[in-house]
Design a protein that fits this description.
Layout (H helix, E strand, L loop, with lengths): L3 H15 L4 H12 L7 E5 L6 E5 L8 H16 L7 E7 L2 H7 L3 H21 L11 E7 L5 E10 L1 E3 L6 E3 L2 H10 L18 E8 L1 H11 L9
Antiparallel strand pairs: 1-2, 3-5, 3-8, 4-5, 6-7
Helix pairs in contact: 1-2, 4-5
């Protein structure tokens, strides 16, 4: 089956002559076209058992390359397994409204940093409230800057364990799905944190996507690490 790199190599030169691309877009196309080809050089692999030698071309490691990111996603998932607890996990999403997304386009580092801060503070603040959980929680947060239509759509995916440590750190406090659902209702109380200049209701919104065993946390993590381009149907 043809890959994205094959399409870029075959049709990229003509397409680049007919449309105006940014320097960043040109760099991405060039990286994907050259990925694992002689253009990037190679390295030698030798089996310590049978002494068989293979030559492999180097990867571009571009964060938009579907070939590189598929491997990176697998390694990232393996690394996260050690972080998973034997509890239920929840997949939550914090999304910036259009007004702030437009600002983020020109102030990426600042706005994306604030989005992470607000997401983390919202989860911690509401979980610490005895009306919801009354415990200290942690979460894995991953930034996405595009939506399903590949347009600018900043949002943060979170993988949240179904519980946390009691304030004294001596016991585990578990929550039910109903409590987590109520937590999303309480989220607006923290929406204006660090977004004080935004209009009322213009802070990040919080949505509960799914819940389940640690296996669903792996599903959520796989979703978090996807790229905008793919070589599969």
């Amino acid at each position: 089956m043809p890959e994205v790199a094959d399409v870029f190599r075959a049709h990229g030169p003509l397409w680049r002559q007919t449309v105006q691309l940014s320097l960043g877009q040109l760099k991405v196309m060039s990286a994907i076209e050259q990925c694992r080809s002689a253009a990037l050089g190679g390295h030698v692999l030798r089996c310590s058992g049978c002494e068989q030698i293979e030559v492999a071309y180097n990867s571009c490691r571009n964060r938009h390359c579907p070939k590189c990111q598929a491997s990176a996603a697998h390694r990232w998932l393996e690394a996260r397994q050690a972080d998973l607890l034997p509890v239920e996990y929840y997949h939550v999403v914090f999304t910036l409204p259009a007004a702030i997304s437009a600002i983020a386009w020109y102030n990426k580092a600042v706005i994306y940093g604030l989005l992470f801060d607000v997401a983390a503070e919202t989860l911690r603040t509401i979980a610490a409230d005895t009306k919801h959980l009354g415990a200290q929680i942690g979460a894995t947060l991953v930034l996405h800057t595009w939506g399903s239509a590949l347009t600018h759509h900043p949002h943060v995916h979170g993988i949240v364990p179904g519980g946390g440590l009691s304030p004294d750190g001596e016991r585990w406090v578990a929550w039910l799905r109903r409590r987590m659902s109520m937590m999303t209702i309480g989220a607006p109380q923290c929406r204006q944190t660090n977004f004080g200049t935004a209009a009322p209701g213009d802070g990040p919104s919080l949505a509960l996507m799914e819940a389940g065993t640690p296996s669903s946390a792996r599903i959520a993590a796989r979703f978090c690490r996807r790229t905008g381009l793919a070589s599969r149907p």
